[in-house]
Amino acid sequence: MRLNFIAAAIAFALGAGALAVSAEGFQTSSSREDTYRHLELFGDVLSRVEADYVTDIDDGALIEAAIEGMLESLDPHSSYLSPDSFQDMQVSTRGEYGGLGMEITTRDDLITVVSPYEDTPAGRAGIQPGDQIIAVDGESIVGFSTDQAVDLMRGPIGEPVTITILRESEEEFDLNLVRETIPLRTVAWREEEGFGYLRIAGFNEHTTETLHEAVAEMREAFDGNIPGVVIDLRYNPGGLLDQAIGVTDTFLDGGEIVTTRYRNPGENQRYNARPGDMINGAPIVVLINEGSASASEIVAGALQDRERATLVGMTSFGKGSVQTIIPLRGGRDGALRLTTGRYYTPSGRSIQATGIVPNWLVSHRIIEEDEERYSEASLDGALANDTGNSREDDNLAAVEMPPEDYDGDFQLDRALEILGALTESEQASLQ
What keywords is this UniProt entry annotated with (predicted)? Predict the structure, then answer.
């Protein structure tokens, strides 16, 4: 194992030098020496642990933990995926899996919920963004990595699992859930008060295709003339970049959708919509909230900047970075999830750590003045916004909130009212 590690370290050093040449054009002899020196230090530490630690250790697990620590020190979204975790990730973007249905991350050494998925065990149990999961089946997971927590919570469909939740201002409590199939279908539609309502819950490989099918069904239901659409992106944690582009393209008639910028300017990309708006310019209201992240923010930001939609809800999560999945030895050694770039809306906005502020601030519940606002900016090691902007505190005086006894979806109800007003205004302008 020791010889294998030294060989791997030398190979890594050579690879690091090659990467530095690619990224910077050259690598000085001094920086190469620093790389080798630090690798030698790592090898010395490993050797001492192997020789002197109080119990026998698993060298492979120790090195894997070191890799995880290195990547997690970069930002909250860079991580090492073990072979099993890499396979799980591929399943979640392409197939089905047995689980609870939520996006999680690590914050202050605690597994923290970013967003629950709609109509899943997590969603139906009332799990909220910012909830911290401190135990699974009675076993503490404080200090666990995100991948370790996922491994515990996923499992055979139909099997029960108990998670312990820590929520601000409440005592910890248990939720007894049953794992279900987390389905591929991320798009659903229905008619709401004479308008189309589209719920997009995530962005996997089939999202754009499923959206086009839903729009075709909607057009047929409205006899070919869709009067207006509410697109619900609340608690949508994101997903594949190409699917966010495809979804946005559905509602634009050409023009820019998003630009991605990388360390190497030669890799920057600008993505444009193709001619043809599938709903023929009908008014759009997009619903977002603090659980709308990443790919859903690309869609919302593009439609807002292009003045194609009015945004209603609360300021979004603020994840404006791009992650690249890099398989290691074809996936046999797992993969790296590495933050490699940032994305920018058509007007040039970076929403990293700031989020998208809707045109109409509307909350689904009454917000207390001293409540903590959970967002990308509150995550350990989150990238700063490169334009120098910071997330603005919500101006609660400007936020519409439901009455105390309101029984319904206040945000959706307001979105439909606003859509109705937009439709009337458009019809008046045509007369």
Answer: Hydrolase, Protease, Serine protease, Signal
| pLDDT tens digits for range 46-62 | 889 989 999 998 888 88
Q: Coil, strand or helix: which one is 133?
A: strand
Would you say the pTM of this structure is higher than 0.85?
no
Residues listed for the chain: 431
Radius of gyration (Cα) for the chain, nearest Å?
Answer: 24
Out of 75, 85, 319, 350, which one is annotated catalytic? 319
CATH code where residue 118 lies: 2.30.42.10
Torsion of CA 117, 192, 244, 316, to 10 degrees: -60
- Please indicate, yes or no, whether residues 244 and 157 belong to a single structural domain of this protein: no
Number of domains composing the chain:
3
Are 21 and 112 within one domain?
no
Higher pLDDT, 312 or 18: 312
Backbone angles phi, psi at 237, to 5 degrees: -80, -5
Beta-strand relationship, 284-288 and 310-313: parallel
pLDDT for the residue numbered 95: 53
Q: Is residue 91 part of a domain?
A: no
Answer whether residue 29 is part of any domain: yes
Do 111 and 57 fall within a single domain?
Answer: no
Tokens of 145: 């990595």
Domain hosting 108: range is: 96-182
CA 49 – CA 380 distance, rounded (Å): 29
Our answer to whether residue 294 is catalytic in this structure is: yes
User: Which of 305, 350, 363, 375 is flagged as catalytic?
Assistant: 305
Structure tokens at 49: 């642990």
Closest CA to 138 of 176, 168, 85: 176
Give the side-chain half-sphere CA count within 13 A for 236: 28
| Residue 3 pLDDT exceeds 60 | no
- Judge whether residue 6 has pLDDT over 70: no
Kindly state whether residues 378 and 262 are assigned to the same domain.
yes
17: amino acid identity, one letter = G
Sheet holding 360-361, edge to edge: 187-192, 195-200, 229-232, 284-288, 310-313, 360-361
d(CA 16, CA 126): 46
pLDDT for 26 beyond 80: no
Contacts 24+ apart (CB under 8 A), 157-161: 157/98, 157/181, 158/98, 159/98, 161/100, 161/136, 161/137
Specify which residues 288 forms β-bridges with: 313
